[in-house]
What we know:
alpha/beta; Rossmann fold; seven-stranded mixed sheet; 9 helices; 17 strands
Amino acid sequence: MRAFALDTFGGPGSVRDLPTPEPTEGQVRVRVAAASINPVDHAVIKGFLKDYMEHHFPLVPCGDLAGSVDAVGPGIDGISVGDPVVGFVGKTVMGEGTLAEFATASAGTIARRPSALGEVEAAALPLAGVSALMSLEAAGPQPDEVVVVVGASGGIGGYAVQLAAARGAHVVAVTSTSNVEYVRGLGAAEVLDRMAGDVVDALRSGHPEGVSAIIDTPSDQPTLARLSGTVRDGGTVTSMKGAAPQELQVRGVKGVNIRTQVTTERLEQLLGMIAEGKLRAPHIRTFTLDRAGDALEASGQGGVRGKLVVTL
């Protein structure tokens, strides 16, 4: 099969022929039509996770996929060859990824893809959508409560804005100047341009009683600690970077560091919202497999609007 792979951390990577993987117990093999790139994938190819997880070389990056089931491993019920699916590989090793014509995935981390949802749009959903969903579950906003989404124009942030708005929350989106209208179109009631002034000052001025929750995707610990001062007692702060300050508990604010776990159930919940018209795909920029290296590099530079998707 054709796949994009690296021989060393930090290497340029290339498209080459690799053996087609075989599904093991509890896995299916998917003929990949599209695979999306997440910031963690850039961290993987640079070797930033080498001390935390096992890596296999040649290293095929990425975990999100959309395609059709090509083979079914032992112990699988309810999934058949030819089924259109969307999901995540669900493996404990890195390097057996989805920038390839075929990829194996756990049956517990994929779901059937509705025919009305295109493969490119579907591939953008798994990790970013589930991360946003888990963030909203942790924050638990009630209707009309103020929820601040920091990094609102990114993959996770774009889904988080929509999910919070669907719950009836008053969404305050924090983004850069070029993305103000984009996040407003996703359902944000207010948009704060982080390049036009101090976000903390703007939040304190606009919401002196404090906000109910902050859903943060890009901030480091010092930045998030300062932002957290705008959250009222009993509120919640979530972080995708492990930056939620633990000292928040002293004043009754819950800090939650999200560790994303893609499951069939969560994917089906998101797909149901898409079918109901409550959730839509973010802005998507596509690349061919031959340009997968460019896509990974773009992801590492940050500031991506929506999602990057490689088509096969």
